[in-house]
Amino acid sequence: MSAAVVPKPLHGRRALLFAGLVALGLGHALAAIAWSLLVRAMIHRLGAPQQATGWLPGAGSTALGLALATAAMLGLERVLAERLGQSWVNDLRVTVFEHIARTPVREYRRSTGATSLRFVGDMTALRRWAALGLAKLAVAVPMLAGCLVALTLASPLVAATVGVVVLGGFLGIQALTPRLYETSVEARRRRARVAAHVTERVRSRLVMQAYGQEDKERRLLHRRSSRLAGAMVRRARMVGAVRATGEATIMIATGTALVAAFIAGVDAAAAAGALAVIGILTTPLRDLTRVAEYRVGATVSMERLAATLRRPIRPRLDSGEVVEPPEGAGTLSVRNVSVTGVLSRVSVELPGGSTVALVGPNGSGKSSLLTVLAGLLLPDSGQVLLDGVDLRAVDEQELRRMIRLVGPDLPLLRGTVADNIRYAAPDADEEAVAEAIRLSGLDEVLAELPDGPRTRVGEGGTGLSAGQRQRVALARAVLGRPRVLLLDEADAHLDPTAATAVDRLIAGFPGTVVVVTHRPERINSVQMVWRLRGGQVEVGTDGWREQLTAWA
Predict the structure, then answer these.
(1) Any idea which UniProt keywords this protein has (predicted)?
(2) Is the dihedral of CA 34, 35, 41, 44 positive or negative?
């Protein structure tokens, strides 16, 4: 297993966008220098009105040109910055989604709410860092340097004074950063708890209503929301301190520049030019003040994303490593398979085309064994072979086509019934879909639904009965004629009609079937029984029909 590589904010095309932003910063710097020189020249000319008449049109045109150029650069800066942020966040979002999708179930047990926060709150913080932090840094640093050059042209003393004040302001902001980080971590943790609580309770609101716990859950949410509010206020206090430091730096820089100009004996024209530059200087100073805020938020979010991406996933096979199983009936060979805490050196053989009932007490590891047989959970040791080929050597998409799993952890998805049937094989032809519907007994259900296969279902299959949901799930699994069908208590909690449909599917399925069941009558449709107890599998032989009730 391997961990994912975190996309870099300045990788590939984004490096060019960043270079473009730096170029815009240099353009702003040149504009600031030009504006300072223009103001200085205008003040000189205004001191001699008789010389200004022929010069004013040119000066006005220059000023208008600088204003239009600055406006154009600001507009382009916003576009490039947003492209930089969206490009990075898009890569991050896809990387995190793919990683979570490929992470074994036992490796990832985060709540839905906390996971959603990865894709909303954390991505927003990272986008802000790229679009409003890195981008502003690229523009503000050259612009700040240009302003200091312009001040140096007016008076080296003024430039040195402003530079010292700006440096002091940045050191003050840096001193506040650790505390800002602490409050940001706390705020994010509180936000994740509230998001997890709300998401999970809303999804399970019927449980709240059935047990009369609405008031209790409301009080719990109120407490957690109050703690979140307190954490956000503490963070806001530190953000306010950082921003106040930046504003104070701007005001002090302006005041000290005037004092320095007076001490240096700068003439009125040079002083006016310096003040014009200081006015321009406020923009990069404010931007750089916000950079610290965005950087801290991004650091906190990236730490959580990095923790997610460090979780091991199943590596993709190179083309030279892939082995295609030969044509076969779906023979499964389990050899010395162990999963810590669940299975211990399990070795069993299931001939192709046969049906086995997997029984055992609750918590014995039946579902875990099925996920191992499906190749969704890699064992700590041992191997599972499909028609003589190790599952780990089979192309992942091909493996999913050959082995299908039905169980309570594989619910229906939001969409139509037809969307759910075709989920595993979107390109399946109508004949294959019709066969899957017939095998699963779904044709009877479709006749009852108001819009047939176009009937919409909610998350988890809401809008359908348990029996209807199960038959849609069965049709989804058998579409494309897999070699092996794994049924995890597919007949649990079903009415007799739905249970009969499962019986017909097992009897008519042409491949290998492993069915987890607690129903003694299911034994009539299987050729073999596996009993799972204490991490070991016992194969039922003589008298196994009589033993099933005790085993189940």
Answers:
(1) ATP-binding, Membrane, Nucleotide-binding, Transmembrane, Transmembrane helix
(2) negative
